[in-house]
Amino acid sequence: MATVAHDLPATHLAVAYHRILVPVDGGSAAAAASAACLLAAEHGSTVSALVVIEVPAALPLDAHMLEEEASARTALAVAEAVGDERGVRVARLAVHARQSGEAIVDAAEELDSELVVLRRTLDKTARYVLKHARCRVLFWTPGP
Q1: Which CATH class is domain 17-140?
Q2: Span 43-83, pLDDT tens digits
Q3: DSSP 8-state assignment for residue 10
Q4: What are phi and psi of 140, to 5 degrees?
Q5: Strand, helix or coil at 90?
Q6: Is the distance from CB of 36 to CB of 11 less than 8 angstroms?
Q7: Residues near 132 by Cβ (< 8 Å), separated by ≥ 6?
Q8: Closest CA to 22 of 132, 139, 130, 110
Q9: How far apart are CA 138 and CA 13, in angstroms?
Q10: What residue ranges do the domains of the chain occupy?
């Protein structure tokens, strides 16, 4: 089930989620983490920030991709800082995968996530998560 939120305060959402997964990247880390932490702050929930480093098929999955790994560390640090500002614990996860959608669904299952927070962009990754995630998926639209 998908829901769309337009920067609503957590008090407008009736359902409490205790384990929230939020995929982040260099361009969306602060906004994505903020949306997830807004939901988590009301209920003492935990947020897991996930960066998926997509590895081309020509390379082994454990290949070192220094630039992408550095970007992942930065995005995760930003997400953690946003959590600190809101009083929410943010776990940091980075994984190497061929496809982001599969990695997000796998992480949600492994973490027993109740909610995945995605940007409101119905791209290939979002469609995969919507189709395969066993938990709810929330699309957020960043405010102005």
Answers
A1: alpha beta
A2: 889 999 999 999 999 999 999 999 999 999 999 999 999 99
A3: G
A4: -115, 150
A5: strand
A6: no
A7: 101, 102, 105
A8: 139
A9: 11
A10: 17-140
